[in-house]
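Below is how a single chain appears once it has passed through the pipeline. First comes the sequence as given, then the structure the pipeline wrote out for it. We keep one example in the README because the format questions we get most often are answered faster by looking than by reading.
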Amino acid sequence: MKRKAQRIKIRAKIRGRIIKAVEFLSLSTSSGQRHLYSRLPFSDQTRDNRPSVIDTISRYHIAYPPISQHPNIPTSPSERNSAISFFLYHFYPAMADKKATKQSAKLLPIVKYYLVLYNFASWAGWTYCLALIVQELVATGGDYTHVCAKVGTLLTYVQTGALLEVVHSALGFVKSPVSTTALQVASRLLLCWAIYEQFNVPAVREHWLFTTMSVAWSITESVRYAYYGLNLINVQPSWLLWARYSLFFVLYPIGAGSEAGLIYQSLPYAKKLSLPFYYYLIGMLIVYPPGLFLMYTYMIGQRKKYLMSAGKERKTAKAE
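Resulting structure:
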């Protein structure tokens, strides 16, 4: 009951802020008030008898469907230039309630633009990491001992940006399960911040496992972010779809195996640093096999789903 009451209070606060913002925006422009009334169900009333902006929005919120579904929602660019129209069109649907947010947020233009920017920025970061690794290996004749010094810090920060993916999943911006996303991100952040940043020793930073892990991460993420980013702008190359749902067969075992190997390499140093941390890392090594199995089977299911769907679409197109 307490949680329900808290949710009701939070929704009431959000609604109140929306109402205040709309009222402020409507009064900030001479045409704003008229434009707002012309778009709501009270436009047939006389000017003197029209309710206040707060009453209008309150009644509209309760008695009518979400404003994004209203037939009078502004559609032309000129109409959306209005402060009121812009606010209602871009933000109101995502604030109605939690379920509506998860279902409609991905359709909001502002969310789509943000996800496109995020995916291409992440793609650029991982592609740059991969380029630096290849450059270092070519320049040194395959000497992997300097790869960590070349890309370690950049790799850490680029991977830390993946924390936003857990937020995206929790908010319903993407379809990925929160548990699967959080598991993968957490395991990688463990390697970045608890292993790489903590142990500046050759046994960890100059080991070949760091190079194989970095290469596996970089290729996987470059392909994944490119696929998601292009998909958001309705560009879907068949080769990229295949790469997204096929390369994991090789890259996931290499990446996860390298991660587990680096954790094992760090155990002697972790024991000297902190005994609880040492046992925590041992626990992580025990969790890795079932975690890899979970991720592997999830990706196999995704591969069947998307590649079979793409195959059916191609057959249908040929038949037509």
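The chain has a mean pLDDT of 77.

See the next section for the split statistics.
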